[in-house]
Amino acid sequence: MPSITPDALRADSDFITRLTELRHDIHRHPETAFEEVRTSGIVAERLLAMGIEIHRGLGRTGVVGTLKGRHPGNRTIALRADMDALFIEEQTGLPYASEVPGKMHACGHDGHTTMLLGAAEKLAADPDFAGTVHFIFQPAEEGLGGARVMIEDGLFDLFPCDAVYGVHNGPKEPLGQVRTRAGAFMSAGDTWEVIFEGSGGHGAMPHAASDPTVPAGQFIAALSQIISRKVPATEAAVISVGHIDAGSYDSPNIIPSRVVVRGTARSYRPEIRDLLEQSIGAFAESCAAPHGTTARLIYTRRYPPLVNTAAEVQRAAAAATGTVGAELVDPDAPLAGGSEDFSFMLEKVPGAYVMIGNGDGPGSAFVHTPKFDFNDALIPIGVAYWMNVVQAELGL
């Protein structure tokens, strides 16, 4: 069977118009983690209208649709889209901009949801494949691990599958360019917090105090040495400081008794993840001790590395090639620095995650910023990709 092309989908102008209007509607009404009641309701209603069997409630607001092909087959795959928005005040000025103060779809999940619904509609209208497809609409990707919660609620017990696939738009990348790789693709995303404590005291008499600001400052200034001197040069890892809290703005003459430094740590292999956690704690303690202060590390492992499996990457690359052509597909892309909770699904089931370029024109913006908007031109590309994944996995 020939691949589905975006041009073939664009020829159905009513279909593309409806999907674009749907994306704008979801964008206008953003819902953050585990609050995607309206969005999941739209998803469920549309899947039912397509004749697709649904299950609701996994991960609180998650929706799973199940479609069987018209031909017999034992293989089952899952396609996943995320639904949640972010706590950001939108500044796009678009006619369909967020109507919810302080919340917006600044990562493109409105587009991800729309593309998967579009693929479900086309596949339900002509299920010319052998086997079963589960459409997973997941809540709370942004920081709260909705994928993990869906799994804990029994996602793969209720809906066992042989492979699972995920898609994210690629911000500021050429429209339709597909990137993926076998093995580690995206980093583990961890949060760390170091609490430096001393006696504090009067700013005019520092000799009478144990001052935690000094070791905290030394720690921050020299933190990069963990990467340069502890992590092998052949490995990739990042440690960044994102928050510092100490003292009172109204009392600059008081040496605080407590300094809190928080940040993120990124890595791609379990051994390096362990090394970062151990080194941050040891480094903080070594800075604190000479000053008569203490340092305590709280290290929270949030999302594991996203690790694609080779066979599924091969199928995803084939589907992408059929969608946009080989010249726009990189099946051995460089490591990506971000993290994704789709990694929890890939810990349970073989699969592949790809990035598809959202466009890099003058008006494009990066994700997680107030001016980001998903590119509607990506909708037919994403729908075609999903349909071609089903063909690569379950086609006759």
TrEMBL record:
Ranges where the Peptidase M20 dimerisation domain occurs: 191-283
Keyword Hydrolase set for record: yes
InterPro entries: Amidohydrolase (IPR017439), Bact_exopeptidase_dim_dom (IPR036264), Peptidase_M20 (IPR002933), Peptidase_M20_dimer (IPR011650)
Keywords in alphabetical order: Hydrolase
UniProt protein name: Amidohydrolase
Keyword Hydrolase: yes
Cross-referenced NCBIfam families: amidohydrolases (TIGR01891)
Organism of this sequence: Salipiger mangrovisoli
Record lineage: Bacteria, Pseudomonadati, Pseudomonadota, Alphaproteobacteria, Rhodobacterales
